[in-house]
Design brief:
The chain has about 150 residues and is mostly helical. It has seven helices and no strands. The radius of gyration is 18 Å and the shape is elongated. The protein starts with 15 loop residues before the first helix and ends in a 7-residue tail after the last helix.
């Protein structure tokens, strides 16, 4: 069922490159995400988005996957992006993470299902998504102590 106003490009109408990208997406996610198939209407934009996503993925290696994915999931919930929440849960499942604990995410600060590193990242994500932001210098210093790599500069 299509939920977007713009229908996805079906594989039979896709270019050879788009078909290849669909195959890669299906292998990675189990199906072609609808926003990806909608973006196929504009191949240059789709390719630019793929480059962007690839660069983000290659640059997002400092944080352990569980910490990164929980912070992204929390942010998606906070901003109200239901697609992002669903995609984030799927991403956690595909990364072999425990998605059952997402039922306790509202109690992350006290739940034994979350590590101290995960709690710190979720709290920071929460502070980042408030308006105005409520990030403290202590949070930044704590995250730097937890996750900064050698040679990192502020």
């Amino acid at each position: 069922m299509t939920t977007s106003r713009i229908p996805p490009v079906p594989p039979q109408r896709a270019s050879l490159l788009t078909k290849l990208l669909y195959r890669m997406a299906k292998r990675r996610f189990g199906e072609v995400p609808e926003p990806f198939a909608v973006a196929a209407h504009h191949p240059r934009l789709m390719r630019a988005n793929l480059v962007h996503e690839s660069m983000l993925a290659s640059g997002s290696t400092t944080l352990p996957a569980s910490v990164r994915e929980l912070a992204v999931f929390w942010t998606a919930r906070t901003i109200g992006c239901s697609w992002c929440v669903d995609f984030g849960a799927m991403q956690q499942r595909l990364d072999g993470l425990d998605v059952d604990r997402l039922a306790d995410i509202d109690a992350y600060a006290t739940s034994s299902r979350y590590s101290d590193d995960e709690r710190a990242a979720i709290a920071y994500a929460g502070a980042m998504t408030t308006d105005p932001h409520t990030i403290t210098d202590e949070q930044v210093a704590d995250l730097r102590d937890r996750f900064a790599t050698p040679g990192w500069s502020s």
